[in-house]
């Protein structure tokens, strides 16, 4: 296999562990913390998880390892979308398992949770694992989005576990995947299978976080990757001085990725969906907000700029949310087939006009036709509009263009407006992990095995104090049920991990809000450049601006 010089160098990188996990497995013991309860709906969550609810948080510390010795056969899956560092979680888990007893076994189930259902796996070896150390992607065993949630699925997984003598299963995933981990852990405990289940917090979106989980893995690398690209575009914009670049970034509903990229690059505009919702901003008010910056800059002779648009922005616009809800209802059941059978867009347009309320149709009718049509593309598995398919970066540039034409006719706008569009998503999901993510992920995997060795189940591998050097990181675990509440899903109340949105009273947003008016008019761009893997720690091990602000390390 031909390797790039960077690949070769990354294979040789030795990830840094928290101090408490260094020095040998035999020197790691457990310190109990406080008992836990769920973030909301405590009685309902407790009733659903009688065997795994209310357990103590725990921390690992230096001391004599007093866990019971036994052979461990552990299964691991990667679940959901890719995130940089996933390979290192597997590597850390493997190394801890083998350091404890070379006869321990790690089985990687392929293609996500379906690998457990289909009994499709590989037994990891040193040679196999070594090809994936410190590299991006999930190609070590692949991933998938199958949900483990039915009685029949749990029975199959139990049989597969029994067949291979599994003592534990590690699920590496986001909020939905770790919700599945909690439910599976409860099932395994209730049926006395002896199989432990441990979760690891993954998502580039940044919405799996709380007072315990300071960052989900992959967020650091992905936002640094996007910020490099945005910085490059800013440099180009400032050189050519003739285009406004509208850049949509991944992040699902939450705006964490957009906010972090704005803190890194200081663009002229960055929309924050959570603020749009809080202020009940309409499409027109958002358009005017962007157009005001374009006008001021254009009238100063600066006909260029950069606007960052979060992926899920339209979900936060009240009038747009209402429109989407009505469209979901309009196409419920067999009406989708009826709609798709119509001969052309004109016929479909009339169908839509008859089916929407006057208020929602008014919103629909001001949208560019390409956005109107995107609202009726393939539905998600629940029959809902896939908002990620809506090119909101083009939507807002088109609406700004129309608004500027009015202002030019009125004589208030004297500049020129030309727009270019970008969507940054897949570029960051499988990037070579930053040193931070390489270290963090390896620690999460190593720590996951310590939770297994000490007999915990229904726990999330937790590493905190992340704004400090790795030596000072704190490793331990917390019951997944601590993060859960009840939500309405497909007409039923379901226990789920609460998603974390951008907090408008949090330090990262406040810093952004204090500077954005200046950035809107002045060219204040910053250029982060590529992720650095070699050199001084203050460059190579740099954490995100979001985490630095949350921990008071940046003013």
Which secondary structure elements does this structure contain, and how are they paired or packed?
Elements: H1 5-11, E1 28-35, H2 42-48, E2 56-62, E3 73-79, H3 86-100, E4 105-109, H4 113-118, E5 121-123, H5 126-130, E6 143-144, H6 151-164, E7 168-173, H7 175-190, E8 196-201, H8 219-240, E9 244-249, H9 256-265, E10 269-270, H10 273-278, H11 283-299, E11 305-310, H12 313-316, H13 318-330, H14 335-340, H15 345-355, H16 358-366, H17 369-374, H18 392-410, E12 419-424, H19 426-429, H20 435-453, E13 459-464, E14 474-479, E15 484-489, E16 492-497, H21 507-521, H22 537-540, H23 545-550
Parallel strand pairs: 3-4, 3-6, 3-7, 7-8, 8-13, 9-11, 9-12, 10-11
Antiparallel strand pairs: 1-2, 2-14, 4-5, 13-14, 15-16
- N-to-C terminal Cα separation, in Å? 47 Å
Number of strands: 16
Low-pLDDT regions: none
- Whole-number count of domains: 2
Q: Please state roughly what percent of the residues sit in beta strands, choosing from under 5%, 5-15%, 15-25%, 25-35%, 35-45% or over 45%.
A: 15-25%
CATH fold-level name of the largest domain? Rossmann fold
Main sheet makeup: 10 strands, mixed
Helix content: 40-55%
Tally of alpha and pi helices: 23
| Overall pLDDT | 95
Name of the CATH first level of the largest domain: Alpha Beta
Shape: globular
Radius of gyration equals 25 Å
Pairing-aware structural class of the strands and helices?
Answer: alpha/beta
Overall CATH architecture of the largest domain: 3-Layer(aba) Sandwich
């Amino acid at each position: 296999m031909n390797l790039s010089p960077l690949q070769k160098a990354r294979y040789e990188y030795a990830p840094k562990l928290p101090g408490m996990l260094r020095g040998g497995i035999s020197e790691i013991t457990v310190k109990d913390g406080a008992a836990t309860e769920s973030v909301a709906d405590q009685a309902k969550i407790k009733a659903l998880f009688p065997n795994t609810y209310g357990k103590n948080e725990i921390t690992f510390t230096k001391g004599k390892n007093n866990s019971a010795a036994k052979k461990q056969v552990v299964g691991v899956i990667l679940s959901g979308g890719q995130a940089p560092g996933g390979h290192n979680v597997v590597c850390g888990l493997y190394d801890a398992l083998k350091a404890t007893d070379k006869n321990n076994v790690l089985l990687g189930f392929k293609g996500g949770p379906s690998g457990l259902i289909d009994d499709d796996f590989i037994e990891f070896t040193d040679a196999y694992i070594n090809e994936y150390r410190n590299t991006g992607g999930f190609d070590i065993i692949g991933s998938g989005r199958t949900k483990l949630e039915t009685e029949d699925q749990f029975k199959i997984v139990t049989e597969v576990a029994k067949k291979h003598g599994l003592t534990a299963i590690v699920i590496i995933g986001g909020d939905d995947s770790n919700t599945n981990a909690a439910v599976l852990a409860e099932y395994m405990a209730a049926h006395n299978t002896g199989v432990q289940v441990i979760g690891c917090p993954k998502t580039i979106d940044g919405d799996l976080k709380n007072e315990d989980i300071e960052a989900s893995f992959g967020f650091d690398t992905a936002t640094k990757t996007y910020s490099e690209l945005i910085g490059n575009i800013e440099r180009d914009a400032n050189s050519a001085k003739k285009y406004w670049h509208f850049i949509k970034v991944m992040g699902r509903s939450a705006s964490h990725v957009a906010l972090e990229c704005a803190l890194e690059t200081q663009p002229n505009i960055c929309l924050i969906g959570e603020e749009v919702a809080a202020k009940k901003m309409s499409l027109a008010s958002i358009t005017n907000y962007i157009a005001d910056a374009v006008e001021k800059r254009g009238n100063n002779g600066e006909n260029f700029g950069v606007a960052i648009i979060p992926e899920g922005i339209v979900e936060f616009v009240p009038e747009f949310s209402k429109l989407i809800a009505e469209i979901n209802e309009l196409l419920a059941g067999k009406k989708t087939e009826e709609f798709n059978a119509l001969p052309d867009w004109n016929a479909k347009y009339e169908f839509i006009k008859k089916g929407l309320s006057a208020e929602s149709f008014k919103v629909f009718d001001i949208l560019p036709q390409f956005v109107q049509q995107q609202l009726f593309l393939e539905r998600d598995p629940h029959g809902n509009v896939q908002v990620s398919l809506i090119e909101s970066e083009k939507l807002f540039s088109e609406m700004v263009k129309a608004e500027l034409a009015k202002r030019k006719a009125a004589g208030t706008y004297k500049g020129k407006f030309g727009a270019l569009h970008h969507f940054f998503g897949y570029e960051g999901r499988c990037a070579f992990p930053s040193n931070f993510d390489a270290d963090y992920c390896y620690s999460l995997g190593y720590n996951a095995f310590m939770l297994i060795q000490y007999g915990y189940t229904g726990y999330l591998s937790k590493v905190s104090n992340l704004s400090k050097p790795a030596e000072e990181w704190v490793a331990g675990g917390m019951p997944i049920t601590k993060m859960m509440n009840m939500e309405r899903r497909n007409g039923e109340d379901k226990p789920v991990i609460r998603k974390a949105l951008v907090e408008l009273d949090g330090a990262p947003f406040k810093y952004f809000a204090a500077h954005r008016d200046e950035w809107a008019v002045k060219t204040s761009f910053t250029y982060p450049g590529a992720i650095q893997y070699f050199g001084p720690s203050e460059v190579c091990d740099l954490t995100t601006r979001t985490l630095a602000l949350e921990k008071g390390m940046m003013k």
